[in-house]
Structure formats: C-alpha cells, structure tokens
C-alpha cells in the first residue's frame, strides 16, 4: 500500500512553527506561520484549519474568486501596466463573457496543461477565430502568472504550451478602379475621407482625429502634423508613439482643412456597406484599412522610394534604416506629385490604369 501523506507538514523557524500544504499533484505550497511556539499547539491549529476548510485557503480559490476585478481600471495590475481604456475593456470582456462562464468555478490549482489545451480547443470549436482565442488565453495566462507570484499555485500550467498557430491572412489592397468605385458611390460627406485615407496612408483612427489645426505649412508645402489618434475615451498617442508629418498637395490641404474629429465608428458605418458590394471582398479581407494598403502599394508602384512611403505610413524602420532615415517635408515633393496623379485618377469617370501616367 502507498504510504499515507499527511495533509500538511510542520517545521520550526525561529520561535514559531510554520506549516506547508500540498497541491493535488503533490507540490508543496508556500510556508505559512501557525503563530504557535509549540509543536502540539501548531498541530491543533492546523487540524482546526483543515476541519474548517481553511488549511489550503490559497489553493482552494477559484478563478472567479481570484480574478474578480483583476482588470478593473483602478486595479493594481491595470495601474502598474498602464493599460489603456480599450485594453481594459478587451481584457474584462474576455474574462467576463468567455473565461468565467466556462471555467470560473474551477480551482486555480486544478487548471493544468491538459485542461488549458482542452479549453483552447473548445473555444476554437465554438467558432471563435484563432486571434480571438489567442487573446482570451493570454488574459488567462496573465491571471495565472499573478496567482503563481502570490503562491496560490506552484506551477505555471502554460509552461510548454505551444502557441496557437494562426492562419496567415493577407489583407489585400484596393485596386484603383475599386477606390474609384467607392468614391463614385459614396455621399459627398464621405468622399473627402476616402480621398484622404487613400492618398495619405493614415490609419482610420488617425484620420478620425485630424482637425484644421493639424494642417501646417513649411517651405511652401502643406502637411499634417500627426500626433494623435481618436478613440472612444478621447485622443490617444499614435500606434508607434512617434509623431510624423504627412505632406499634402493643395487639393488635399483643402480637404483636411474642412475636417473635424469624429469617432472612427462613423467611418465604418458609412463606408463598409459600399466595400461589401465589391465582388470577393470577404476572401480578400477588404476593409477600410485596405485604403491604407492602396496608398502603400500604389505609391511604390509609381516609383516613390519605399523608405519615404514607409515613413509617411508610420511603419517602424529596422536596423540601419531607422538610424539614417530622416525626411523633411520639402524632401517629399514626389509624394505630393503622386497625390495629384491619384486624385485625378480616382475622380476621373474614365477607366485609366497605371500605365497611362
């Protein structure tokens, strides 16, 4: 017969006796004091805790008990990590709507490598995308790492759990004819935004925050001094935290000078129905962001230096390129030349291709 293991072990540290308990898989937990100076009194103390179900208080905690308020705006985790309001919403939604309904009653100590694999597969089988499942598992991992640091669990069940492989999804760019189609079908108030997105490479949230005050002049060239983006909770820093200048031809200066900041949701509600009328839009992953892709691909095809295009689009340059690449607005005259060409093509009722430059 296997040897019986006592529920706890006692040892003396200084004047007092401490006890350790064991997790279901036999791992010893963090030592806790009994407050007793004699072994017999310490044993009585531990036996009493055991009868009351408090001996393994930490390991008995469920996910719901431990994660309650974990990602709240005023929580220690959110403050220490500087979470934005949008991140807090995403994390709380993942926890409250997916994780707690499924495994909220489960003890933290009972969440194992195998149970995580099963949970992940169940989420995929429920129809969630790989990216959505990856987010929810990341939220759970954050909580479990905190429980590990608090001594509530003794092992990280995510250790050696291989990352979920997401299928590669390449978002296509709009063709010139498709941008022209959107421009033709859109209402007058939407047309200027389509033109600005297609010819500046700005992200939707970035354009949503543009106002006339952001349009400036330098050496006779107009440009947008882009320093912020629009979000539900107000203005936020740009995605890569680095402001950038976007040159504008005269016609675009006029359009940008007529804008006022607005929630980016209004862009989607006005333009997305038009995008969904384009054959094959779903398979090609076409969306408003594809106007940014049009800018990048079309400007490069026009012959503009790719470093200029990447800089204006706000991409992070790598290695030596990041050290030595710096453009002033006056260095970007070829961008404004392309913008004038693109505006003429988009507004033209004729089907003019790139070869007609």
What can you tell me about this protein's structure?
The strands form 3 sheets. The chain has a 3-stranded antiparallel sheet with strand order 1-2-3, covered by helices on one side. It contains 16 helices and 8 strands. 29% of the residues are buried. Mean pLDDT is 84; it is low at 320-324 and 352-357. It has helices at residues 39-51, 57-60, 63-67, 76-80, 85-103, 113-125, 130-149, 176-185, 188-200, 204-208, 250-256, 265-275, 290-302, 306-313, 319-324, 333-347; strands spanning 8-13, 16-21, 32-33, 215-218, 221-226, 229-231, 234-236, 244-248. A hairpin with a 2-residue loop joins strand 6 (229-231) and strand 7 (234-236). The N and C termini lie far apart (88 Å). Helix 8 packs antiparallel against helix 9 (188-200). With 357 residues, it is mainly alpha-helical.
As residue ranges, the low-confidence spans are: 320-324, 352-357
The average pLDDT is: 84
Largest sheet: 3 strands, antiparallel
- Per DSSP, the total helix count is 16
Number of strands: 8
**Helicity, in percent?**
40-55%
Beta-strand content? 5-15%
Q: What integer value in Å does the Rg equal?
A: 29 Å
Can you write the helix and strand succession as a string? EEEHHHHHHHHHHEEEEEHHHHHH
What is the SS-derived class? mainly alpha
What general outline do the C-alpha atoms trace? elongated
Q: What is the terminal-to-terminal distance?
A: 88 Å
Q: In order across it, which strands form the biggest sheet?
A: 1-2-3
Can you lay out the helices and strands and say which pair or pack?
Blueprint: E1 8-13, E2 16-21, E3 32-33, H1 39-51, H2 57-60, H3 63-67, H4 76-80, H5 85-103, H6 113-125, H7 130-149, H8 176-185, H9 188-200, H10 204-208, E4 215-218, E5 221-226, E6 229-231, E7 234-236, E8 244-248, H11 250-256, H12 265-275, H13 290-302, H14 306-313, H15 319-324, H16 333-347
Helix pairs in contact: 5-7, 6-7, 8-9, 9-13, 13-14
């Amino acid at each position: 017969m296997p040897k019986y293991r006592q529920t706890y072990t006692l040892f003396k540290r200084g004047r007092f006796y401490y006890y350790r308990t064991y997790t279901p898989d036999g791992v010893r937990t963090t030592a806790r004091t009994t407050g007793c100076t004699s072994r017999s009194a310490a044993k009585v103390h531990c036996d009493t805790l055991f009868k009351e179900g408090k001996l393994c208080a930490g390991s008995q905690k469920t996910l719901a008990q431990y994660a309650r308020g974990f990602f709240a705006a005023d929580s220690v985790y959110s403050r220490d990590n500087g979470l934005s309001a949008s991140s807090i919403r995403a994390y709380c939604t993942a926890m409250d709507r997916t994780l707690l309904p499924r495994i909220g009653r489960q003890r933290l100590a009972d969440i194992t490598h195998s149970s995580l694999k099963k949970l992940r597969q169940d989420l995929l089988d429920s129809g969630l995308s790989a990216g959505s499942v990856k987010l929810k598992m990341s939220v759970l991992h954050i909580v479990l790492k905190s429980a590990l640091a608090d001594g509530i669990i003794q092992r990280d069940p995510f250790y050696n759990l291989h990352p979920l492989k997401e299928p590669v999804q390449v978002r296509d760019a709009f063709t010139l004819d498709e941008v022209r189609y959107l421009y033709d079908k859109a209402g007058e108030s939407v047309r200027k935004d389509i033109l600005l997105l297609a010819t500046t490479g700005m992200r939707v949230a970035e354009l949503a925050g543009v106002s006339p005050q952001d349009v400036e002049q330098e050496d006779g060239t107009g440009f947008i001094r882009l320093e912020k983006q629009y979000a539900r909770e107000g203005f936020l820093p740009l995605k890569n935290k680095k402001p950038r200048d976007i040159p504008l031809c005269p016609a675009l200066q006029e359009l940008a000078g007529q804008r006022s900041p607005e929630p980016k949701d209004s862009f989607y509600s006005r333009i997305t129905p038009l995008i969904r009328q384009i054959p094959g839009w779903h398979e090609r992953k076409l969306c408003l962001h594809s106007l940014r892709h049009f800018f990048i691909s079309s400007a490069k095809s026009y012959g503009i230096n790719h470093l200029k295009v990447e800089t204006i689009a706000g991409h992070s340059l790598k290695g030596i390129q990041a050290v030595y690449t710096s453009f002033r607005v006056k260095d970007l005259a070829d961008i404004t030349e392309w913008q004038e060409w693109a505006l003429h093509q988009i507004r033209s009722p004729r089907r003019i291709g790139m070869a007609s430059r």
